[in-house]
């Protein structure tokens, strides 16, 4: 996750929440098969 610029920032209702330190995109509900790079690009293509 860190290599894709994410840091862990859990909330009570989202214990897998991750934020990008550069663009602040916030992602939750990660699946074991999710790629941090792919998800980051999908949700914040200009980061």
Automatic annotation (TrEMBL):
PROSITE patterns: BIR_REPEAT_2 (PS50143). The keyword ATP-binding does not apply. SUPFAM superfamilies: Inhibitor of apoptosis (IAP) repeat (SSF57924). Pfam families: BIR (PF00653). It comes from the Eukaryota. Keywords: Metal-binding, Zinc. Coiled coil: none annotated. SMART domains: BIR. The lineage of its organism: Eukaryota, Metazoa, Spiralia, Gnathifera, Rotifera. This is Uncharacterized protein. Gene3D superfamilies: Inhibitor Of Apoptosis Protein (2mihbC-IAP-1), Chain A. One of its GO terms (molecular function) is metal ion binding. It comes from Rotaria sordida. InterPro entries: Baculoviral_IAP, BIR_rpt.
